[in-house]
Write a structure and sequence with these properties.
With about 375 residues, the protein is an alpha+beta fold. Helices cover about 45% and strands about 15% of the residues. The longest helix has about 55 residues, at about 255-310. The chain is elongated, with a radius of gyration of 34 Å.
Length: about 375
Amino acid sequence: MTEFWLISAPGEKTCQQTWDKLMVATTRTNNLSTNHKFNIPDLKVGTLDVLVGLSDELAKLDTFVESVVKKVAQYMADVLEDSRDKVQENLLANGVDMVTYITRFQWDMAKYPIKQSLKNISEIVSKQVTQIDNDLKARASAYNNLKGNLQNLERKNAGSLLTRSLADIVKKEDFVLDSEYLVTMLVVVPKTNYADWQKTYETLAEMVVPRSTKQLYEDNESGLFSVTLFRKAVDDFKHKARENKYTVRDFQYNEEEMKADKEEMTRLSTDKKKQFGPLVRWLKVNFSEAFIAWIHIKALRVFVESVLRYGLPVNFQAMLIQPNKKNMKKLREVLYDLYKHLDSSAAVIDASMDIPGLNLSQQEYYPYVYYKIDCNLLDFKV
Protein backbone atom coordinates (compact mmCIF):
# COMPACT_ATOMS: atom_id res chain seq x y z
CA MET A 1 0.00 0.00 0.00
CA THR A 2 1.68 3.21 -1.14
CA GLU A 3 -0.90 5.63 0.24
CA PHE A 4 -0.13 7.60 3.39
CA TRP A 5 -2.27 9.92 5.49
CA LEU A 6 -0.31 12.75 7.05
CA ILE A 7 -2.36 14.06 9.95
CA SER A 8 -1.87 16.21 13.00
CA ALA A 9 -3.69 16.63 16.30
CA PRO A 10 -3.06 19.06 19.18
CA GLY A 11 -0.73 17.98 21.98
CA GLU A 12 -2.57 16.74 25.05
CA LYS A 13 -0.56 17.45 28.19
CA THR A 14 2.34 16.35 26.01
CA CYS A 15 2.64 15.48 22.32
CA GLN A 16 3.67 11.96 23.38
CA GLN A 17 0.19 11.44 24.85
CA THR A 18 -1.40 12.42 21.52
CA TRP A 19 0.82 9.85 19.82
CA ASP A 20 0.06 7.12 22.37
CA LYS A 21 -3.69 7.66 21.97
CA LEU A 22 -3.44 7.26 18.21
CA MET A 23 -1.37 4.10 18.59
CA VAL A 24 -3.88 2.55 21.01
CA ALA A 25 -6.83 3.43 18.75
CA THR A 26 -5.34 2.22 15.46
CA THR A 27 -2.75 -0.48 16.08
CA ARG A 28 -2.83 -2.15 19.48
CA THR A 29 -5.94 -4.26 18.97
CA ASN A 30 -7.25 -3.83 15.46
CA ASN A 31 -4.28 -3.44 13.07
CA LEU A 32 -5.91 -0.61 11.10
CA SER A 33 -2.63 1.05 10.13
CA THR A 34 1.11 1.36 10.58
CA ASN A 35 2.02 4.71 12.13
CA HIS A 36 5.15 6.83 12.31
CA LYS A 37 5.90 10.10 14.04
CA PHE A 38 6.47 12.79 11.43
CA ASN A 39 9.11 15.21 12.65
CA ILE A 40 8.56 18.87 11.79
CA PRO A 41 11.11 21.29 13.28
CA ASP A 42 10.28 24.58 15.06
CA LEU A 43 9.52 26.77 12.10
CA LYS A 44 8.98 30.53 12.22
CA VAL A 45 5.27 31.17 12.65
CA GLY A 46 4.96 34.80 11.43
CA THR A 47 1.61 36.62 11.53
CA LEU A 48 -1.85 35.15 11.15
CA ASP A 49 -2.47 37.10 7.91
CA VAL A 50 0.66 35.63 6.35
CA LEU A 51 -0.35 32.10 7.44
CA VAL A 52 -3.82 32.41 5.92
CA GLY A 53 -2.36 33.60 2.58
CA LEU A 54 0.38 30.99 2.72
CA SER A 55 -2.16 28.22 3.27
CA ASP A 56 -3.64 28.86 -0.21
CA GLU A 57 -0.24 29.31 -1.86
CA LEU A 58 1.05 26.05 -0.40
CA ALA A 59 -2.02 24.19 -1.69
CA LYS A 60 -1.21 25.37 -5.24
CA LEU A 61 2.49 24.67 -4.79
CA ASP A 62 1.71 21.15 -3.50
CA THR A 63 -0.28 20.39 -6.66
CA PHE A 64 2.45 21.81 -8.91
CA VAL A 65 5.33 19.96 -7.19
CA GLU A 66 3.37 16.69 -7.21
CA SER A 67 2.77 17.10 -10.96
CA VAL A 68 6.52 17.60 -11.57
CA VAL A 69 7.39 14.56 -9.41
CA LYS A 70 4.96 12.48 -11.49
CA LYS A 71 6.28 13.88 -14.78
CA VAL A 72 9.89 12.99 -13.89
CA ALA A 73 8.83 9.50 -12.76
CA GLN A 74 6.74 8.91 -15.87
CA TYR A 75 9.50 10.14 -18.17
CA MET A 76 11.96 7.85 -16.41
CA ALA A 77 9.61 4.96 -17.28
CA ASP A 78 9.39 6.14 -20.91
CA VAL A 79 13.18 6.43 -21.25
CA LEU A 80 13.83 3.00 -19.70
CA GLU A 81 11.55 1.46 -22.39
CA ASP A 82 12.47 -2.23 -22.25
CA SER A 83 13.45 -2.29 -18.59
CA ARG A 84 10.36 -0.73 -17.07
CA ASP A 85 10.57 -3.16 -14.17
CA LYS A 86 13.72 -1.29 -13.17
CA VAL A 87 11.87 2.03 -12.85
CA GLN A 88 10.97 1.59 -9.21
CA GLU A 89 14.56 0.94 -8.17
CA ASN A 90 15.57 4.23 -9.81
CA LEU A 91 12.86 6.25 -8.07
CA LEU A 92 14.76 6.98 -4.89
CA ALA A 93 14.78 9.93 -2.52
CA ASN A 94 18.12 10.60 -0.85
CA GLY A 95 19.28 7.13 -1.86
CA VAL A 96 16.36 5.24 -0.24
CA ASP A 97 12.97 4.18 -1.59
CA MET A 98 10.06 6.61 -1.25
CA VAL A 99 8.32 4.76 1.58
CA THR A 100 11.51 4.64 3.67
CA TYR A 101 12.14 8.34 3.03
CA ILE A 102 8.64 9.36 4.13
CA THR A 103 8.49 7.13 7.19
CA ARG A 104 11.90 8.36 8.38
CA PHE A 105 11.41 11.95 7.28
CA GLN A 106 13.98 14.43 8.58
CA TRP A 107 13.79 18.10 7.66
CA ASP A 108 16.71 19.10 5.40
CA MET A 109 18.17 22.11 7.26
CA ALA A 110 20.78 22.80 4.57
CA LYS A 111 18.31 23.07 1.69
CA TYR A 112 15.48 24.70 3.61
CA PRO A 113 16.96 26.69 6.56
CA ILE A 114 14.38 27.00 9.31
CA LYS A 115 15.67 30.43 10.31
CA GLN A 116 14.02 31.66 7.09
CA SER A 117 10.35 32.64 7.08
CA LEU A 118 7.79 30.05 5.91
CA LYS A 119 7.14 32.16 2.82
CA ASN A 120 10.86 32.16 1.93
CA ILE A 121 11.08 28.40 2.37
CA SER A 122 8.08 27.90 0.07
CA GLU A 123 9.69 30.22 -2.50
CA ILE A 124 12.95 28.23 -2.36
CA VAL A 125 10.94 25.07 -3.17
CA SER A 126 8.96 26.79 -5.90
CA LYS A 127 12.09 28.12 -7.62
CA GLN A 128 13.90 24.78 -7.37
CA VAL A 129 11.02 22.71 -8.75
CA THR A 130 10.21 25.21 -11.54
CA GLN A 131 13.84 24.85 -12.66
CA ILE A 132 13.53 21.04 -12.67
CA ASP A 133 10.29 21.33 -14.68
CA ASN A 134 11.90 23.62 -17.28
CA ASP A 135 15.02 21.44 -17.56
CA LEU A 136 12.87 18.33 -17.97
CA LYS A 137 10.94 19.93 -20.86
CA ALA A 138 14.18 20.85 -22.66
CA ARG A 139 15.89 17.49 -22.11
CA ALA A 140 12.77 15.47 -22.96
CA SER A 141 12.23 17.46 -26.15
CA ALA A 142 15.82 16.87 -27.36
CA TYR A 143 15.77 13.15 -26.53
CA ASN A 144 12.27 12.60 -27.98
CA ASN A 145 13.31 14.24 -31.27
CA LEU A 146 16.29 11.94 -31.52
CA LYS A 147 14.19 8.91 -30.62
CA GLY A 148 11.45 9.92 -33.08
CA ASN A 149 13.91 10.34 -35.98
CA LEU A 150 15.48 6.98 -35.21
CA GLN A 151 12.07 5.27 -35.02
CA ASN A 152 11.08 6.78 -38.37
CA LEU A 153 14.21 5.35 -39.98
CA GLU A 154 13.68 1.99 -38.29
CA ARG A 155 10.06 1.98 -39.47
CA LYS A 156 11.27 2.57 -43.01
CA ASN A 157 13.39 -0.58 -42.72
CA ALA A 158 10.56 -2.70 -41.37
CA GLY A 159 7.01 -3.52 -42.35
CA SER A 160 5.62 -4.86 -45.59
CA LEU A 161 7.40 -4.94 -48.91
CA LEU A 162 4.80 -2.48 -50.24
CA THR A 163 6.11 0.34 -48.03
CA ARG A 164 9.44 -0.53 -46.45
CA SER A 165 12.82 0.72 -47.61
CA LEU A 166 14.43 -1.70 -50.05
CA ALA A 167 17.97 -0.37 -49.60
CA ASP A 168 19.10 -3.18 -47.28
CA ILE A 169 17.48 -5.90 -49.43
CA VAL A 170 18.86 -5.25 -52.91
CA LYS A 171 22.42 -5.47 -54.20
CA LYS A 172 24.21 -3.69 -57.00
CA GLU A 173 24.32 -6.86 -59.13
CA ASP A 174 20.48 -7.08 -59.08
CA PHE A 175 20.31 -4.09 -61.47
CA VAL A 176 21.23 -3.21 -65.01
CA LEU A 177 22.95 0.12 -64.36
CA ASP A 178 24.22 2.89 -66.66
CA SER A 179 22.32 1.61 -69.69
CA GLU A 180 20.83 4.06 -72.13
CA TYR A 181 18.02 1.67 -73.13
CA LEU A 182 17.46 -0.86 -70.35
CA VAL A 183 16.18 -0.43 -66.81
CA THR A 184 15.52 -2.85 -63.93
CA MET A 185 12.16 -2.53 -62.12
CA LEU A 186 11.28 -3.96 -58.71
CA VAL A 187 7.83 -5.54 -58.39
CA VAL A 188 5.99 -6.76 -55.27
CA VAL A 189 4.02 -9.93 -56.07
CA PRO A 190 1.56 -11.52 -53.60
CA LYS A 191 2.64 -15.07 -52.67
CA THR A 192 -0.53 -16.52 -54.14
CA ASN A 193 0.34 -14.97 -57.54
CA TYR A 194 3.90 -16.25 -57.97
CA ALA A 195 2.94 -18.77 -60.68
CA ASP A 196 0.92 -16.16 -62.59
CA TRP A 197 3.83 -13.73 -62.42
CA GLN A 198 6.24 -16.22 -63.94
CA LYS A 199 3.76 -16.96 -66.74
CA THR A 200 2.78 -13.38 -67.55
CA TYR A 201 5.54 -10.89 -66.69
CA GLU A 202 7.16 -11.09 -70.15
CA THR A 203 3.84 -10.15 -71.80
CA LEU A 204 2.83 -7.27 -69.50
CA ALA A 205 4.42 -4.88 -71.99
CA GLU A 206 6.40 -5.03 -75.16
CA MET A 207 10.16 -5.03 -74.81
CA VAL A 208 10.43 -6.94 -71.50
CA VAL A 209 13.71 -8.87 -71.49
CA PRO A 210 12.80 -12.58 -71.49
CA ARG A 211 13.81 -14.65 -68.45
CA SER A 212 15.03 -11.51 -66.69
CA THR A 213 12.95 -11.89 -63.51
CA LYS A 214 14.59 -12.94 -60.27
CA GLN A 215 13.15 -13.25 -56.78
CA LEU A 216 15.21 -11.07 -54.41
CA TYR A 217 13.32 -11.29 -51.13
CA GLU A 218 10.19 -12.63 -49.46
CA ASP A 219 8.16 -11.63 -46.41
CA ASN A 220 4.97 -13.20 -44.96
CA GLU A 221 2.67 -11.91 -47.68
CA SER A 222 4.69 -11.19 -50.84
CA GLY A 223 7.89 -11.55 -52.75
CA LEU A 224 10.11 -8.90 -54.34
CA PHE A 225 10.98 -9.64 -57.96
CA SER A 226 13.28 -7.79 -60.34
CA VAL A 227 12.53 -7.54 -64.04
CA THR A 228 14.48 -5.81 -66.84
CA LEU A 229 12.84 -3.98 -69.75
CA PHE A 230 13.39 -1.18 -72.22
CA ARG A 231 12.95 2.30 -70.74
CA LYS A 232 10.28 3.26 -73.28
CA ALA A 233 8.05 0.39 -72.07
CA VAL A 234 8.08 1.44 -68.38
CA ASP A 235 4.75 3.32 -68.26
CA ASP A 236 2.91 0.60 -70.12
CA PHE A 237 4.45 -2.07 -67.85
CA LYS A 238 3.45 -0.20 -64.67
CA HIS A 239 -0.14 0.16 -65.88
CA LYS A 240 -0.51 -3.53 -66.81
CA ALA A 241 1.21 -4.65 -63.58
CA ARG A 242 -1.33 -2.64 -61.55
CA GLU A 243 -4.19 -4.32 -63.42
CA ASN A 244 -2.75 -7.71 -62.45
CA LYS A 245 -2.45 -6.72 -58.75
CA TYR A 246 1.35 -6.41 -58.88
CA THR A 247 2.92 -3.34 -57.27
CA VAL A 248 5.86 -1.68 -58.98
CA ARG A 249 8.07 -0.01 -56.37
CA ASP A 250 9.51 3.36 -57.28
CA PHE A 251 13.17 2.64 -56.63
CA GLN A 252 16.40 3.88 -58.15
CA TYR A 253 19.62 2.21 -57.12
CA ASN A 254 21.79 4.98 -55.67
CA GLU A 255 24.74 3.81 -53.63
CA GLU A 256 25.53 7.21 -52.14
CA GLU A 257 21.98 7.80 -50.92
CA MET A 258 21.79 4.34 -49.42
CA LYS A 259 25.14 4.83 -47.68
CA ALA A 260 23.99 8.21 -46.31
CA ASP A 261 20.80 6.61 -44.90
CA LYS A 262 22.81 3.87 -43.20
CA GLU A 263 25.23 6.41 -41.72
CA GLU A 264 22.35 8.55 -40.46
CA MET A 265 20.83 5.50 -38.75
CA THR A 266 24.17 4.64 -37.12
CA ARG A 267 24.67 8.26 -36.02
CA LEU A 268 21.20 8.54 -34.46
CA SER A 269 21.57 5.18 -32.74
CA THR A 270 24.98 6.20 -31.32
CA ASP A 271 23.65 9.61 -30.19
CA LYS A 272 20.70 7.95 -28.45
CA LYS A 273 23.02 5.57 -26.58
CA LYS A 274 25.30 8.48 -25.64
CA GLN A 275 22.43 10.55 -24.26
CA PHE A 276 20.71 7.67 -22.48
CA GLY A 277 23.13 7.32 -19.52
CA PRO A 278 23.41 11.02 -18.62
CA LEU A 279 19.63 11.45 -19.05
CA VAL A 280 18.79 8.58 -16.69
CA ARG A 281 21.28 9.97 -14.15
CA TRP A 282 19.70 13.43 -14.42
CA LEU A 283 16.22 11.94 -13.96
CA LYS A 284 17.33 9.99 -10.86
CA VAL A 285 18.93 13.04 -9.23
CA ASN A 286 16.03 15.34 -10.03
CA PHE A 287 13.35 12.85 -9.09
CA SER A 288 15.01 12.69 -5.69
CA GLU A 289 15.16 16.53 -5.47
CA ALA A 290 11.53 16.99 -6.53
CA PHE A 291 10.21 14.24 -4.26
CA ILE A 292 12.10 15.60 -1.24
CA ALA A 293 10.76 19.08 -2.03
CA TRP A 294 7.22 17.65 -2.24
CA ILE A 295 7.38 16.03 1.19
CA HIS A 296 8.77 19.28 2.67
CA ILE A 297 5.76 21.09 1.19
CA LYS A 298 3.48 18.54 2.91
CA ALA A 299 5.34 19.25 6.17
CA LEU A 300 4.89 23.02 5.67
CA ARG A 301 1.18 22.54 4.99
CA VAL A 302 0.71 20.47 8.14
CA PHE A 303 2.56 23.10 10.18
CA VAL A 304 0.60 26.06 8.79
CA GLU A 305 -2.78 24.30 8.98
CA SER A 306 -2.11 23.05 12.53
CA VAL A 307 -1.24 26.56 13.75
CA LEU A 308 -4.34 28.00 12.04
CA ARG A 309 -6.62 25.33 13.49
CA TYR A 310 -5.16 24.65 16.90
CA GLY A 311 -3.75 28.11 17.67
CA LEU A 312 -0.61 29.25 19.47
CA PRO A 313 1.68 28.39 21.13
CA VAL A 314 2.65 25.73 18.58
CA ASN A 315 1.65 22.45 20.16
CA PHE A 316 0.70 19.57 17.88
CA GLN A 317 1.87 16.11 16.91
CA ALA A 318 2.24 15.30 13.20
CA MET A 319 1.69 11.63 12.47
CA LEU A 320 2.15 9.58 9.33
CA ILE A 321 -0.41 6.82 8.93
CA GLN A 322 -0.08 3.99 6.44
CA PRO A 323 -3.60 2.57 6.25
CA ASN A 324 -4.25 -1.14 5.98
CA LYS A 325 -6.09 -1.28 2.65
CA LYS A 326 -8.91 -3.53 3.87
CA ASN A 327 -9.70 -1.30 6.84
CA MET A 328 -9.59 2.22 5.42
CA LYS A 329 -13.26 2.98 6.12
CA LYS A 330 -12.98 1.69 9.67
CA LEU A 331 -9.78 3.72 10.18
CA ARG A 332 -11.60 6.91 9.14
CA GLU A 333 -14.34 6.18 11.68
CA VAL A 334 -11.84 5.53 14.47
CA LEU A 335 -9.95 8.77 13.68
CA TYR A 336 -13.24 10.68 13.60
CA ASP A 337 -14.25 9.34 17.03
CA LEU A 338 -10.80 10.15 18.35
CA TYR A 339 -10.75 13.77 17.15
CA LYS A 340 -14.39 14.85 16.62
CA HIS A 341 -14.16 17.05 19.75
CA LEU A 342 -11.69 19.30 17.84
CA ASP A 343 -14.36 20.59 15.47
CA SER A 344 -17.98 19.71 16.09
CA SER A 345 -19.03 21.04 12.70
CA ALA A 346 -16.67 18.73 10.82
CA ALA A 347 -18.84 15.75 10.22
CA VAL A 348 -16.95 13.71 7.67
CA ILE A 349 -17.42 15.59 4.40
CA ASP A 350 -15.98 13.89 1.39
CA ALA A 351 -14.84 15.92 -1.62
CA SER A 352 -16.81 13.59 -3.87
CA MET A 353 -20.08 14.87 -2.32
CA ASP A 354 -21.35 17.91 -4.18
CA ILE A 355 -22.52 20.43 -1.61
CA PRO A 356 -23.63 23.72 -3.17
CA GLY A 357 -21.69 26.76 -1.99
CA LEU A 358 -19.02 24.68 -0.30
CA ASN A 359 -15.73 24.75 -2.10
CA LEU A 360 -13.46 22.09 -0.69
CA SER A 361 -10.92 22.54 -3.48
CA GLN A 362 -10.86 18.75 -3.99
CA GLN A 363 -9.64 18.17 -0.44
CA GLU A 364 -11.62 16.13 2.10
CA TYR A 365 -12.25 17.93 5.39
CA TYR A 366 -11.92 16.21 8.74
CA PRO A 367 -11.77 17.46 12.34
CA TYR A 368 -8.01 16.86 12.28
CA VAL A 369 -5.44 18.24 9.83
CA TYR A 370 -5.15 15.76 6.96
CA TYR A 371 -3.14 15.48 3.73
CA LYS A 372 -2.80 12.45 1.51
CA ILE A 373 0.54 11.34 0.07
CA ASP A 374 0.23 8.78 -2.71
CA CYS A 375 3.52 7.19 -3.75
CA ASN A 376 2.00 5.35 -6.70
CA LEU A 377 3.32 7.89 -9.21
CA LEU A 378 3.12 5.95 -12.47
CA ASP A 379 0.29 5.28 -14.88
CA PHE A 380 1.22 1.62 -15.09
CA LYS A 381 1.94 -0.98 -12.46
CA VAL A 382 5.65 -1.73 -12.31
